[in-house]
Amino acid sequence: MKSPNYILRLRYREVLANIAPTYYNQVPNKAFGNYFVINGITSTDNSTKTSFDIDTTIQIVCHTEDLSTNDGKALEDMADQALAGLMPTPYKGVVLDNNFQNGSTSIASDVVQNWTNNQGYSVMERIITFRHRIHQKN
């Protein structure tokens, strides 16, 4: 069995980086404005006698901040674009590679965090967790 985590993270980054700057598990000190953070990926073996199947969750954070008020519109726009790119139709997710097939994609959770003030900046975040059933092809 092989791990799909790295290729899944790359595919997510490809989609999200077309919307806003995208980071993995960390944010540079000078990051400001709107960006995504790809948080940890969790995988669980769900194989059968005849197939290698992996249940995987991946979490993204949509982050917006502004010097003035933050009404959440930018946050919703970012999330909508991310959802359209990562899950273009129900249960269909990003295409992986020759070793893995994305069998299904669903949203495990979608949480908008409370507004915060960070040194005068109005900050809002939305955390979306995706669930995948991934099949190893070979």
Number of helices: 2
CATH topology, which one? STM4215-like
Rough shape? elongated
CATH architecture: 2-Layer Sandwich
Rg estimate, integer Å: 16 Å
Judged by helices, strands and strand pairing, the structural class is alpha+beta
Tell me about this structure.
- By secondary structure, the protein is of the alpha+beta class.
- The chain has a single domain (5-136), classed as STM4215-like, CATH 3.30.2000.30.
- 20% of the residues lie in helices and 44% in strands.
- It has 2 helices and 6 strands; from the N terminus they run αβββαβββ.
- The protein has helices spanning 5-17, 73-86, and strands at 22-24, 35-45, 52-66, 100-112, 116-118, 121-136.
- Strands 1, 2, 3, 4, 5 and 6 form a 6-stranded mixed sheet that branches.
- The longest helix is centred in the middle third of the chain and has 14 residues, at 73-86.
- The chain is elongated.
- The N and C termini lie close together (9 Å).
- The mean pLDDT is 86.
